[in-house]
Design a protein that fits this description.
The protein contains four helices and 26 strands. It has helices at residues 3-24, 30-35, 41-47, 50-61, and strands at residues 65-72, 75-82, 92-94, 96-97, 102-103, 110-114, 117-121, 129-132, 137-140, 162-171, 176-184, 192-198, 206-207, 221-226, 229-234, 238-243, 248-253, 263-267, 270-277, 280-288, 293-300, 315-318, 323-328, 331-336, 341-348, 357-365.
């Protein structure tokens, strides 16, 4: 038996030990796994194996966490904590930091997370960055082509082409992350739809066929990725869908009774939209995308009056138990739809940062040991 074969068997045994640890300890933290890379080259090799990273992701999907992006002391930090099983007014979330911090100048005005990766964007033409909090790695996206070649010259006073939106999606079957970028212009330059696949080798933007034209009016927002399709709102009556696998667009009309102030979120695996009507909470669930069919559920919103929950940006999402989560100052509010009760949970663990500012909070973050 060759030395190389013995080494391979030894590495496999070590990998099996790590796998068994993941199996036994359902709360096995990604932060600890990431530190194992520094033990030796063999460990670094093991932790990059696809069979290990896929197993770790499978386990992580069963135990989603809270993720917080925090700015403090001139740095951009990531904190996470498990979700409480039965929160009450005496509960606290103890958030712990990931080992790597990023410069504060990293874009963070717009932030989204899909399957463990985080897309950071800025309003002022900052270069978008994708990072993995669990591994500490980050990737600066290549420059987006804002002009089509072979177009006639335009007047100097014409508005330049600008970003209309950038979205991160994941195809669980193909195990591929993709970024969709949409640009817009008010002159004769056409809009562009470009996509980039996150994979090894040279990363290039690929231009997709133009299927529709839109004007950026500040209403493209509320994106959410569910089972390889991500959705975002266009105007008040249309939801745009992009299939990450096929790279095709489609559209869903909203119900005529749905108010314009929609917030999109994952409703138990389906696309959900939330609106407020006076003191009632209306939840719309997409039951049939092909026929644009939505179902409606209404809830008395009286427990939320004290917290002034009319502001759309406070909605974070829904837990697997059907509780809607809101952010409110340094607390999280868990609104139980069935009992019509609210539980306030304190966020702890950041006291040593001085004056931290929580920029974004995500409800269904899963740790992913995939290296980018």
């Amino acid at each position: 038996m060759s030395i190389e074969h013995n080494v391979f068997l030894c590495l496999c045994c070590q990998l099996q030990c790590v796998v068994c640890s993941v199996e036994r300890h359902k709360s096995f933290p990604g932060k600890s796994v990431a530190r194992f890379r520094c033990v030796s080259k063999h460990w670094a090799f093991l932790l990059r194996r696809s069979d290990f990273t896929e197993l770790f992701l499978t386990k992580s999907l069963t135990r989603p966490r809270f993720l917080f992006t925090v700015k403090a002391n001139g740095k951009l930090l990531f904190y996470s904590s498990p979700r409480p099983h039965n929160p009450d007014d005496n509960s606290s979330l103890v958030a712990s930091p990931y080992n790597t911090s990023f410069p504060e100048y990293f874009p963070s005005d717009i932030c989204s997370t899909v399957c463990g990766l985080v897309l950071l964007q800025g309003w002022k033409r900052k270069v978008p960055v994708i990072c993995n909090p669990a591994t500490g790695e980050f990737l600066t996206l290549p420059k987006v082509l804002l002009k089509e070649k072979n177009l006639p010259k335009v007047k100097a006073k014409s508005n330049p082409t600008e970003m209309g939106g950038m979205y991160l999606g994941y195809d669980p079957l193909g195990k591929q992350f993709k970024v969709l970028c949409m640009t817009w212009s008010r002159d004769e330059r056409p809009n562009t739809h470009q996509v980039l696949t996150l994979e090894s080798g040279k990363r290039l933007w690929r231009t997709l066929e133009h299927k529709f034209h839109f004007v950026n009016n500040g209403e493209i927002n509320g994106d959410i990725c569910i089972d390889r399709v991500f959705y975002f709102r266009k105007y008040s009556k249309i939801v745009v869908c992009f299939d990450v696998r096929s790279e095709k667009f489609s559209f869903i009309n909203t119900n005529e009774d749905m108010w314009y102030s929609l917030s999109l979120f994952n409703y138990k695996g389906k696309l959900g939209a939330r609106c407020l009507v006076e003191q009632e909470l209306e939840l719309w669930v997409l039951e049939d995308a092909g026929n644009h069919k939505w179902s409606k559920r209404s809830f008395v919103f009286s427990p939320m009056r004290h917290y002034r929950m009319g502001r759309q940006k406070l909605l974070l999402g829904m837990t697997s138990k059907g509780e809607i989560v809101y952010s409110w100052n340094s607390f999280l509010l868990f609104y139980n739809l069935e009992s019509n009760t609210v539980k306030r949970v304190n966020i702890q663990g950041m006291e040593g940062l001085g004056h931290p500012r929580i920029c974004h909070t995500f409800v269904n973050y899963v740790e992913n040991m995939k290296f980018i």
